[in-house]
Amino acid sequence: EIGGVKIDKDDVVRDDPTNNVPDTIFTKLGLQLHRRDQHPLGILKNAIYDYFDMNYSTKFVKFDDLCPIVSVKQNFDDVLVPADHVSRSYNDTYYIDAQTVLRCHTSAHQAELFRKGHTHFLVIGDVYRRDSIDSTHYPVFHQMEGVRVFSTDELEKSGMDGTSYAAIDLKKCLEGLARHLFGAVEMRWVDTYFPFTNPSFELEIYFKEQWLEVLGCGVTEQEILKRNGRENNVAWAFGLGLERLAMVLFDIPDIRLFWSTDERFTCQFSEGKLGVKFKPFSKFPPCYKDMSFWISDAFTENNLCEVVRGITGDLVEEVKLIDNFTNKKGMTSHCYRIAYRSMERSLTDDEINQLQWKVREEVESKLKVVLR
Ligand code: PHE
């Protein structure tokens, strides 16, 4: 079962020519880390639930098992993502076939939940994005979406225009949530753009001497409400990244650890205990390997990272461009440094050399580049 919708993973046909979901990603479907009460992501989810339960007399309805396989319409069209937006590209999103994707955000469920009549809801789930590799990026992560629809009554009573009223309420709600999770914390609002909200904001919190973006939010575009049976209402929505917050709250240094089944990781967390600081069981040394090649026009870093992840699994910590030049003939060369490090054990030279040889082979055969 994947989510509330019964899907036999064997029934998902992945032989469409447009399919770009590798096995390493497909095997993550249905794991639902956010539904484990002893896992940092589950503990965080429950703490956010508590905040909404305590502060609102109208209950927020929670959905944490909606199917991550959604239509292009749900993921993009329904939330007004323009036809030419980069997030729709095969380079950024996992497609099962031309009409079906692994959701890249929990906003994919907004429209259907509006249509079903929900006015206060939270959607928590695994989301999927093709991306580069470093300690804070992993192609599968978890989001929580929150949506509140205001009644026409409440808006009238306020005497304000609906958009300003909703924006003020939204900021108050999320500042309260940040304090609930972090205690006294410095925060700031940054104006931004999302296709589905206007105005749109990001909330940043000050942590370890830098500003960290923790969520996106805004006042829902009227067009979305209108199309889904809420023509006369006003609403706000937010989407926050659970890993980002959990890394800060639990001191988790690398995003791969969330997927670890090593007891030395899993045993450190218990139900209901937010903010227990993770003690690294030992820091194994990284090993660096460089690789240079002439690229073609079709080359993208996301494709490179997928090849590397496909061969090395979670043994890769970072893939970083360290040199980039174009010669007189117009040929462009890239040099990438791959950092290998296991979170759980030390790696042997032999093992790493073998991985690196496989990576070189596949990079050359699959990415149409010329190794130097
Ligand atoms: N869906 C946005 C993202 O993934 C976050 C968001 C949700 C922003 C809802 C505004 C409103 O980045």
From TrEMBL:
<dbReference type="InterPro" id="IPR036690">
    <property type="entry name" value="Fdx_antiC-bd_sf"/>
</dbReference>
<dbReference type="InterPro" id="IPR045864">
    <property type="entry name" value="aa-tRNA-synth_II/BPL/LPL"/>
</dbReference>
<protein>
    <recommendedName>
        <fullName>phenylalanine--tRNA ligase</fullName>
        <ecNumber>6.1.1.20</ecNumber>
    </recommendedName>
</protein>
<dbReference type="GO" id="GO:0005524">
    <property type="term" value="F:ATP binding"/>
</dbReference>
<keyword id="KW-0648">Protein biosynthesis</keyword>
<dbReference type="GO" id="GO:0004826">
    <property type="term" value="F:phenylalanine-tRNA ligase activity"/>
</dbReference>
<comment type="similarity">
    <text>Belongs to the class-II aminoacyl-tRNA synthetase family.</text>
</comment>
<keyword id="KW-0809">Transit peptide</keyword>
<dbReference type="InterPro" id="IPR005121">
    <property type="entry name" value="Fdx_antiC-bd"/>
</dbReference>
<dbReference type="GO" id="GO:0005759">
    <property type="term" value="C:mitochondrial matrix"/>
</dbReference>
<dbReference type="InterPro" id="IPR002319">
    <property type="entry name" value="Phenylalanyl-tRNA_Synthase"/>
</dbReference>
<keyword id="KW-0547">Nucleotide-binding</keyword>
<keyword id="KW-0496">Mitochondrion</keyword>
<keyword id="KW-0067">ATP-binding</keyword>
<feature type="domain" description="FDX-ACB">
    <location>
        <begin position="282"/>
        <end position="372"/>
    </location>
</feature>
<keyword id="KW-0436">Ligase</keyword>
<dbReference type="GO" id="GO:0000049">
    <property type="term" value="F:tRNA binding"/>
</dbReference>
<dbReference type="InterPro" id="IPR006195">
    <property type="entry name" value="aa-tRNA-synth_II"/>
</dbReference>
<dbReference type="GO" id="GO:0006432">
    <property type="term" value="P:phenylalanyl-tRNA aminoacylation"/>
</dbReference>
<dbReference type="Pfam" id="PF03147">
    <property type="entry name" value="FDX-ACB"/>
</dbReference>
<feature type="domain" description="Aminoacyl-transfer RNA synthetases class-II family profile">
    <location>
        <begin position="124"/>
        <end position="280"/>
    </location>
</feature>
<dbReference type="Pfam" id="PF01409">
    <property type="entry name" value="tRNA-synt_2d"/>
</dbReference>
<keyword id="KW-0030">Aminoacyl-tRNA synthetase</keyword>
<comment type="function">
    <text>Is responsible for the charging of tRNA(Phe) with phenylalanine in mitochondrial translation.</text>
</comment>
